Amino acid sequence: INEKPTGSKDPFALRRAALGVIRLIVENNLRLSLKGLFDRARINYEQQGVEVEDATSDLLAFFADRLKVQQREAGVRHDIVDAVLSNSQADDLVKILNQVEALQSFIATDDGVNLLAGFKRAANILRIEEKKDKTRYGGDVDEALLSDAAEKSLYQALDMMAKDAKVKIESEEFTSAMSDIAKLRQPVDRFFDDVIVNADDAAVRVNRLNLLAKVRSSLSDIADFERIEG
């Protein structure tokens, strides 16, 4: 009936009801799809002859917002929740919160702090160069153009991490996946210490920017690191 909560009113107490649903799911460790529940409710109405607008995307966004509130009150960093939610197609709240817990623990370590700094440095360089060049980097990295030991090391580490971490995320081995991500910290640091990204050779420059884009995309497969503060 389009009576959505606003800043000043919530006539049907939908915020409170959503928090209740979230609490029931999380405290009972219920593995279910919110989207599946919403779809089933809509189908039930339609079978009764009642036309209902498909509001699944709005409902998922509403529950995501309520989840952030609930987790903030529980002492979980809002930016970590946001980073996982923004990157996740999942609507399994238990899975999402398990990933949030593992990511928050990782970001609190020295490896996490330094890797986040390296990611943000890579993202900033790419943002500047992409704006200047009017393009978005992310093409294949040409191994033949990797001449510096530091860029070769980073390329190999990214290739290994991307395979291992993705499999572990899918199988919900989140803590182990974070251990794989931590292995990037040293190669990323070494790259920025030893390598000049904007090389005089145009082909080498583009290749190095594509390598940084691989850092960006590989970590973005885990969570939206750009949303993490620090």
Summarize the entry for a quick read.
This protein has 230 residues and is mainly α.
Beta-strand fraction estimate:
under 5%
Number of helical runs?
A: 10
How would you classify the helix and strand content by structural class? Answer: mainly alpha
- The low-pLDDT segments are none
Shape label: elongated
What string, H for helix and E for strand, traces the elements in order? HHHHHHHHHH
Number of strands: 0
Radius of gyration: 21 Å
Q: Describe the sheet with the most strands.
A: none
Amount of helix:
55-70%
| Mean pLDDT metric | 92
Termini Cα gap: 42 Å
How would you explain this protein's 3D organization?
The chain is mostly helical and 230 residues long. The chain is 67% helix and 0% strand. The chain has ten helices and no strands. The protein has helices spanning 14-27, 34-47, 56-73, 78-87, 93-107, 110-133, 149-170, 174-182, 185-194, 202-220. The radius of gyration is 21 Å and the shape is elongated. The protein starts with 13 loop residues before the first helix and ends in a 10-residue tail after the last helix. The model has no long low-confidence stretch (mean pLDDT 92).
